[in-house]
Amino acid sequence: MGVKAYAVGGVVRDYFLQRPCTDIDVVCVGSGIELAKAAAASAGGHTKVSVYQNFGTAAFGYRYNNIDWQIEFVGARKESYRRESRKPIVEDGTLEDDQNRRDFTVNAMAMSLNEETWGELVDPFGGIRDLNEGLLRTPLDPDITFSDDPLRMMRAVRFASQLGFRIEDKTFEAIGRNKERIEIVSKERIATELNKIIMSPRPSVGFKLLELSGLLKLIFPELSKLKGIETVEGRGHKDNFYHTMEVLDHVAEKSDNMWLRWAALLHDIGKPYTKRYDERIGWTFHGHEAKGSHMVKRLFKNLHLPLNGKERYVEKLVMLHMRPIILSEDIVTDSAVRRLLFEAGDDIEDLMTLCEADITSKNEVKVKRFMENFSTVRRKLVELEEKDRIRNFQPPVGGEEIMRIFGIPPCHEIGIIKDRIKDAILDGKIPNEREAAVKMMYEIAAELGLKAVNG
Ligand code: CTP
C-alpha cells in the first residue's frame, strides 16, 4: 500500500527488555483500519478483523509459531493516544506527533515494518537510554502527558513496580500536582492497574509509591488509613501500612494467586476501626479480623472488582487470619485444628501461607517459636484430615432425614441435633461416620422428647 508502518509502544519496549509480549501495536501514517484489512487479507482469507471506527483502530488475531498474536492497527494522530477515548480520532499526524502523545519515553519507541527500513528504531526521546537506566519519564512536560490521560499516573507507578524502574523526579512531582485528576478515570481502569501492581514481583514498591504520591488516599482511602503510629504514654503500635506491605511481599514470594495477594493486602484493613488503648496491655485491635472481613464486599464494590465469589474467598481468609496464630500460642488441641479445617475447607493451605507471611517480627526468637508452632499445626492438619476428612465436611445425617424419622416439620430442634452432631465430630467425641452420627441423633432426640415414627 506504500504506507509507512511501525511496531510501537509496549511491544518495542518488551522486545528490548526480553519480556514475552503477544500484543503488537502497529501505527501507520494513514488509515489504520485500511492497513489492518489489507494485512489480514494477506495473512489468510479467514482472518476476522474487528474494526473500532470511533477509535480509528482495527485488530485481528493471528496464530503463528503456536502463539496467538493480537495485532492492533492505528493511524498516527496528533492527539493523545488513548485506547478508551470516546472522542472520534483524526488520523492526521506524523509518526513524531503520535510518539509525542504517548505516556513514557520507554513506551514511545517505534520500529519500522517497511521492507527498506525493516527493524530501524525511531526513538526521539531517548527511550533506549531510559530503558537501560530503568527510568520512567514522560516524552512531553509531565503536566501535559498526565492531563491528557490521568490514568498514566497510575501506569507510572505500575511500571515502576512491575519492571523495577524508577520514576524520574520531575515526573513524580507532577503526579503530586495532578493527583486529584485521577477522579475522572473509570474505576475499572484503576482496578486493572491495581491488579497489575498486586501481581508485580514486589507489590509493596507500587503501593508505597501510590502512598508517597498521594494517589492512594484518593483511590483507596481505607488502605491509606493503615498508615501511621499513635503513641500514648510513650507506647506506640506498629505502622500497619508498612506491616501490610511486608506481608504482601511475603505472600507474593510464595504465590501467584491474585486473590490470596488481595487477602494479604486486606488482612488488617479493619485495624483502624478497632484500635483501643488499654493502660495495662497497651494497644489492642480486638475483632479487627471480623471488622475487616465485613468490609471486603464493600471494598470490592467501590473498587469495581468482580463480585463472582472471589470476594467470599478474601472475606474468609481475612476472617480466619488470626486463628492459626492464636492456635499456636496455645496448646494445639485436635479439636481446635479440626474446627479450623472445617471453617477453612479447601482454602486451608492459602490460609497457612497468609499466616506465615503475617509474622513480620524482628525478634528472631519469637519468629522461630511461631514457625515451630505453625509446623505443629500443619502436621496436625495433615494427620486429622487423613483420619477424619473434615476439609469438605458434609453432615452425616441431614435435616430431611431427621424430619422424616421423627415426623416433624422444619423446626429449631433439627438445628440443635445437627449442630450437636457436628460439634461432637469436630471435638473428636464421635468419628466422622454415619453409624455413630445416627446413634447420637437418637440420643439427642430422646433428650428433646422426640419419638421416632419412621425407622
Ligand atoms: N499508551 C499511552 N497512554 C495510555 C495507555 C497506553 O500512551 N494511557 C500507549 C503507550 O505507548 C503504550 C501503548 O499505548 O505502550 C499500548 O498500551 P497498552 O497496551 O495499554 O500497554 P503496554 O504498554 O503494551 O503495556 P501492558 O501490556 O503491560 O499494559
Structure commentary:
The protein is an alpha+beta fold. It folds into 4 domains: 1-130, Beta Polymerase, domain 2, CATH 3.30.460; 134-219, Hydrophobic Seed Protein (Orthogonal Bundle); 230-388, Hypothetical protein af1432; 399-447, no CATH class. The chain contains 23 helices and 13 strands. The chain has helices spanning 10-17, 32-43, 95-100, 127-133, 142-148, 151-163, 169-178, 187-198, 203-213, 215-219, 221-224, 240-254, 258-266, 271-274, 288-303, 310-320, 323-329, 334-344, 348-357, 364-388, 399-406, 412-426, 434-447, and strands at residues 5-8, 23-28, 50-52, 57-64, 67-75, 110-112, 121-122, 135-136, 166-167, 231-232, 235-236, 276-278, 282-284. The strands form 4 sheets. Strands 3-4-5-2-1-6-7 form a 7-stranded mixed β-sheet. A two-stranded parallel ribbon has the order 8-9. The chain has a two-stranded antiparallel ribbon with strand order 10-11. A hairpin with a 3-residue loop joins β12 (276-278) and β13 (282-284). The longest helix has 25 residues, at 364-388. It is elongated. The chain starts with a strand and ends in an 8-residue tail after the last helix. The mean pLDDT is 93. Bound molecules: cytidine-5'-triphosphate (CTP).
